[in-house]
Design a protein that fits this description.
The chain has 177 residues and is of the alpha+beta class. 28% of the residues lie in helices and 27% in strands. The strands form two sheets. It has a five-stranded antiparallel sheet.
């Protein structure tokens, strides 16, 4: 099955910028499909993780932290309805954070951040390396999401729930995207 690469902190706030579509074109021999501007890629051809990391590192203009998942893990994650009892409003965003590896310990869930007052980030569940939750559209959310590294004790990269559905569509398709 395909692999999915998520770059951490790329194209955010004018830092660590690159053109994901250009990178995907340079890696077309691996069947790379770019999804969005944040550094999310589906790798359709069979390749080892070491070679894949080297291929990306050789072409990126900065050192990047890469999280690599199997496509079937994402399909399995999307088969669950984490938001069934939650009314989604315009000011609330559904998200998935991917842990770079399994943490030694995990907090009790659900968890609201900050823990007092109005929450900005609400973590609903953790499935293996995937943390699923909601955040409010507020300026302070970025720094609050940044605390997930500390909460779980491992580097974390976050994407919108809709991005994961886009990944699933690419995984399900057979032709060029």
């Amino acid at each position: 099955m395909a692999l999915v690469v998520l770059l951490r902190g790329a194209n955010v706030g004018g830092h660590r910028t690159f053109r994901p579509s250009t990178l995907a074109g340079q890696l077309k021999h691996l069947g790379v499909v770019n999804i969005g501007a944040a550094g999310t890629f589906v790798i359709r051809r069979s390749v080892g993780r070491v070679q894949l990391r080297r291929e990306f590192a050789d072409r990126l203009p900065f050192d990047a932290h890469m999280t690599i998942c199997h496509g079937h893990e994402i399909i399995e994650l999307l088969s669950r309805d984490f938001f069934q009892e939650r009314q989604v409003r315009r000011d609330i965003v559904r998200f998935v954070s991917v842990l770079s590896r399994l943490p030694r310990t995990s907090p009790l869930l659900p968890l609201d951040l900050p823990s007092n007052g109005n929450w900005l980030v609400r973590i609903l569940a953790r499935e293996n390396r995937f943390v699923v939750g909601l955040y409010r559209r507020r300026m302070k959310v970025i720094s609050t999401l940044g605390t997930l590294d500390r909460v779980f004790g491992v580097p974390v990269t976050t994407r919108n729930w809709n991005t994961f559905h886009a990944i699933a569509r690419v995984l399900a398709s057979r032709g060029p995207s």
